[in-house]
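During the reporting period the student researcher (J.K.) took over the structure-prediction task from the postdoctoral fellow and processed the backlog of single-chain submissions. One of the processed entries is reproduced below for the supervisory committee.
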Amino acid sequence: MAKIKLTKGELKKQRDALIQYERYLPTLQLKKQQLQLEIIYHINILTERKRAEEKKREALKSWIVLMADPGVDISKWIKPKDVLTQVKNIAGVDIPVFTEARFEFAEYDLFSTPLWVDSGIDALRALASLKSEIAVIEEGVRILRRELRVTSQRVNLFEKVKIPQAREAIRLIKIYIGDQMANAVGRSKIAKRKIKEMVFEEVAA
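J.K. obtained the following structure tokens:
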């Protein structure tokens, strides 16, 4: 704890600081709770999306042989051209929210292309879209965790450092000022007694 001035001005400064800390702390604690709940919520969604991704991968295994056909290349139609997101504000923090994945228009000869291509493109696009959504959710969780770490540090700073320091400073200053006042009263009484003694001596003389 830094050295403090044992004055009335410093006492007011410390009291004002304590009021601010105690007013701000509940807001930080609430933000911390909100972030914790949101992280749990997004992790649950992430887990569900990853399960869905695994199911789609399993379902695509039956397509592998067909997709290995060297005469058919659908790779350019199954990679997202754009991944659109919106911004969601959670406890003062902006995170991305997946909207949709957009793909190049699949243009090919319907007569010379195998019948499975349409279904194959749709299935692979669904998987790619899901992977894009998972990546966006993961980014949101990273942002929330980073903000939670900063907020937790601030809560600890207020709870364990700033508020106790301000209270201790106030206690020390009040003790010092109280002692000074007591000493002043004592000196005043001694001075009055001496004055009375001097007056009495002069009257007696």
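The committee noted the following: The chain has a mean pLDDT of 85.
J.K. will present the remaining backlog at the next meeting.
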